[in-house]
Amino acid sequence: MCGRYASFLPPDLIARLFGTKNPVPNLKPTWNMAPTMDAPVIRRHPETGERHLDVLTWGFIPAYTKTLKQARRPVNARSETVASSGMFRNAFAKRRCIVPAAAFYEWHAGPHGKTPYAIARADGDPLAFAGIWEGWRGPDSEIVRGFAILTTSANAQMSVLHERMPVILDRSDWPGWLGEAEADPASLLRPAPEGILKIWPVDKRVGNVSNDGPELLQPHEPALR
Asked: Exposure winner among 9, 14, 133, 181, fewest CB in 10 A?
């Protein structure tokens, strides 16, 4: 799964990397992105077909939701069932997006408790998570747009931490995932190739959403008890 990630890349860098065309939004960097927070997302504009860099809320809100208070707001969607799920299938067919990140976190339960680990690309490039989004219209006509990150089975490298991992798209997959090129989106929902990621332990402070800053990504050996 993916429940926390680092999102501190400058918006103008994200815009250049993904070739977005709309005005660059003002985004606050965070090293501890958590559910319900606003995050940068790359979407294809439904009318112009251009890539846009927009700010959406992390947490998928189905269009049929009656009130936000009742909304489940899942932050992840399983790739194995996303095309058939009543909650996600329309978004998977029509509203796919890319979620850029510098790294993500996963916790591993060991003999000395749960230890958080950071995971990033070994080559230093940003991660590009496969996502889906939906727009929910409230009774006052306000539209709230939320997204979820797709997960898949872990590759061998990640399986030492968790049985699941976010779907990480290769650059060559971006056009197909966004619907700009002919592609079977389901075929892109696969574990990351072995060797493209690096993993290191970090401080347990990342578990508290009130903690934020670059120190959260510093290597931190687990304390022995």
From this structure: 181
CATH number, domain with residue 137: 3.90.1680.10
The answer to the question of residue 222 being in a domain is no
- 223 domain residue, yes or no: no
Structure tokens at 115: 């230890």
Gap between the Cα atoms of 197 and 156, Å rounded? 11
- Predicted confidence (pLDDT) per residue in 148-187, tens digit: 999 999 999 999 999 999 999 999 999 999 999 999 999 9
User: For 195-223, how does the pLDDT look when each residue is reduced to its tens digit (9 = 90+)?
Assistant: 999 999 999 999 999 999 999 999 988 65
Residue 136, in any domain of the structure:
yes
2, 92, 152, 176 from 149: Cα distances, Å: 7, 11, 10, 17
Give the span between the Cα atoms of 151 and 191, in whole angstroms: 9
Please give the tally of structural domains in the chain. 1
pTM equals 0.95
For residue 18, give its domain range. 5-217
